[in-house]
């Protein structure tokens, strides 16, 4: 289907403006999360912070998947250069990875088998594994690195939407892309605000390593609006999956909730793009009729992805 | 599952009685709890080590209703049982709305109903002694008058559209309460599904892109009494 063919562009733009104004009103929540992460108030492990910020985990090898591309790489958080380095490069030697409920699955659907995946945790729960980076002091330097890296990824998303816009031909799709890019820009602004407040240098460049590894090949091959939208879908779904993983990996309920208030919206973005811009059906939005969003960590190491300076 | 109209009426009467007994001091309690939550939040920012300056104050959407839910001292199993009952209520709602749906829409409704049943099963499996025995009676009672007034497919889909959003917001709020990360992880896999349900229903209804983001760039974590389409279903009212 097309986006609401009966709706005029003027109407759509008015609504977009309205929703942007509303968005500005709720941004303090996002800033709150960032402040709490960066200040070390929450006992977030390095893994958890990496998960939230969309950078590779220092303790686990994993996969970073976007649109079918899979990259294996180093545990780049080892480059943090803080007094947390030793810990940050030491794999977790006991127990399951920090959160298993959403990660111990494969395939399209993250199952929640009764009595297993959702069973009360006795081991492997985030915050109880002794995962590295749990001390506020050790995490302080890393927090800024992670924040910078996350900001670079937000900038990447903004840029990708901007670049892909050249291939968009449908006015309503363009407007939706502009709206979604605006969300990412606001995230970037919020991140930079927190970084600046912590005495760090704001991020103005996209994450080149991630772009080169995952986005550039697809952009280069993209010829049509559908190609461009599929790149956006892949980005949004990867982001949503990252947040779902984080929703179980973060150390405190407040952080987990905050992350999922974002993750849910990323999932909405993907659904809108699939249904409205690609004319896909529920079969595409819910492959295999899945009832649970994938929660496996889609992130892993990409050399150079970490913004350390 | 299926509820007869007679059963719904009986549930309504029962719930109305319980509700009126319990609601008497509800607003004062919520007001006080909101203040306590705000104070606690300010205290939590004070121990941050001063890396970041003035902390942002939590948006009202986050605090609204959660303090009252927290005051119920809900443990994870209780929350799981509550979520199960809400999911079962969603199944009941789709079941009741099904006769109004066209052949083109019915399969989607059945898919979503199946999702809700799976969610209910999952929550029920870890709810322990708090496992629900059926749909959330208070919620069913609250929505019954509206359901009974539905006359066409559009009305049914609009109703489901709102309910799906409220389900997503309920889980965003539940995540502020769940202590066990595994419960949270599982809940996190469900929230986006409800959100996507709402998108599908909204677009099927011809809503604009902006309309399928009712709370814009962030899911609401607020809780309400069911009348606010932008707030989740407060266990203080429905549990």
Structure summary:
The complex is a heterodimer of chains A (309) and B (239). Chain A is an all-alpha fold and 309 residues long. Chain A has 9 helices and 2 strands, in the order ααββααααααα.
Question: What features would you describe in this structure?
Answer:
The complex is a heterodimer of chains A (309) and B (239). The model of chain A is unreliable at 1-7, 40-44 and 48-140 (pLDDT under 50). Chain A has 309 residues and is mostly helical. In chain A, strands 1-2 form a two-stranded antiparallel ribbon. In chain A, helix 4 runs antiparallel to helix 5, helix 4 (136-164) packs parallel to helix 6 (208-221) and helix 4 packs antiparallel against helix 7 (225-249). In chain A, 54% of the residues lie in helices and 2% in strands. The longest helix of chain A is centred in the N-terminal third of the chain and has 31 residues, at 9-39. Chain B has 239 residues and is an all-alpha fold. In chain B, 64% of the residues lie in helices and 2% in strands. Chain B contains ten helices and two strands. A two-stranded parallel sheet of chain B has the order 1-2. In chain B, helix 1 packs across helix 7, helix 5 (76-97) packs parallel to helix 7 and helix 8 (153-174) packs antiparallel against helix 9 (181-204). At the A-B interface, helix 1, helix 4, helix 5, helix 7 and helix 8 of A face helix 5, helix 6, helix 8 and helix 9 of B.
């Amino acid at each position: 289907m097309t986006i609401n063919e009966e709706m005029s562009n003027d109407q759509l733009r008015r609504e977009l403006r309205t929703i942007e104004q509303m968005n500005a009103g709720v941004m303090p929540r996002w800033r709150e999360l960032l402040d709490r992460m960066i200040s070390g108030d929450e006992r977030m492990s390095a893994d958890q912070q990496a998960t939230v910020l969309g950078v590779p985990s220092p303790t686990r090898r994993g996969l970073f998947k976007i649109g079918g591309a899979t990259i294996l790489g180093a545990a780049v958080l080892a480059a943090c250069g803080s007094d947390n380095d030793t810990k940050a490069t030491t794999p977790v030697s006991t127990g399951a990875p920090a959160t298993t409920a959403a990660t111990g699955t494969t395939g399209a659907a993250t199952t929640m088998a009764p009595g297993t995946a959702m069973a009360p945790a006795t081991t492997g729960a985030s915050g109880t594994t002794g995962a590295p980076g749990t001390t506020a002091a050790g995490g302080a330097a890393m927090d800024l690195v992670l924040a910078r890296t996350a900001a670079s990824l937000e900038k990447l998303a903004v840029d990708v939407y901007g670049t892909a816009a050249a291939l968009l031909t449908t006015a309503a799709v363009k407007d939706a892309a502009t709206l979604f890019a605006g969300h990412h820009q606001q995230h970037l602004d919020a991140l930079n605000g927190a970084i600046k407040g912590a005495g760090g240098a704001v991020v103005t460049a996209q994450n080149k390593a991630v772009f080169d590894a995952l986005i550039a090949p697809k952009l280069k091959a993209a010829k049509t609006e559908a190609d461009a939208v599929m790149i956006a879908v892949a980005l949004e779904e990867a982001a949503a999956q990252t947040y779902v993983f984080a929703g179980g990996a973060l150390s405190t309920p407040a952080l987990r909730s905050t992350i999922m208030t974002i993750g849910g919206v990323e999932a909405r973005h993907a659904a809108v793009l699939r249904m409205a811009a690609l004319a896909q059906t529920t079969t595409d939005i819910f492959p295999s009729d899945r009832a649970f969003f994938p929660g496996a960590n889609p992130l892993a190491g990409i050399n150079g992805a970490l913004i350390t300076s | 599952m299926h509820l007869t109209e007679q059963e719904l009426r009986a549930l309504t009467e029962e719930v109305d009685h319980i509700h009126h007994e319990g609601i008497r001091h509800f607003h004062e309690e919520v007001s006080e709890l909101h203040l306590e939550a705000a104070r606690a939040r300010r205290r939590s920012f004070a121990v941050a080590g001063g890396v970041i300056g003035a902390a942002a104050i939590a948006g009202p959407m986050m605090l609204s209703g959660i303090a009252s839910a927290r005051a119920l001292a809900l443990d994870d199993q209780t929350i799981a049982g509550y979520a199960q009952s809400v999911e079962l209520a969603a199944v009941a709602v789709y079941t009741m709305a099904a006769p109004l749906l066209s052949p083109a829409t019915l399969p989607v409704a059945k898919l979503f109903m199946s999702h809700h049943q799976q969610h209910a099963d999952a929550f029920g499996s870890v709810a322990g002694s708090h496992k629900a025995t059926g749909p959330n009676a208070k919620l069913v009672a609250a929505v019954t008058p509206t359901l009974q007034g539905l006359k066409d497919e559009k009305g049914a889909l609009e109703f489901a559209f709102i309910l799906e959003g409220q389900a997503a917001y309920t889980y965003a709020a539940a995540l502020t309460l769940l202590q066990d990360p595994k419960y949270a992880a599982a809940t996190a896999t469900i929230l986006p599904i409800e959100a996507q349900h709402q998108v599908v229903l909204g677009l099927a209804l011809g809503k604009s892109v902006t309309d399928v983001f009712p709370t814009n760039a962030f899911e609401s974590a607020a809780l309400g009494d069911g009348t606010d389409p932008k707030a989740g279903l407060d266990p203080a009212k429905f549990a």
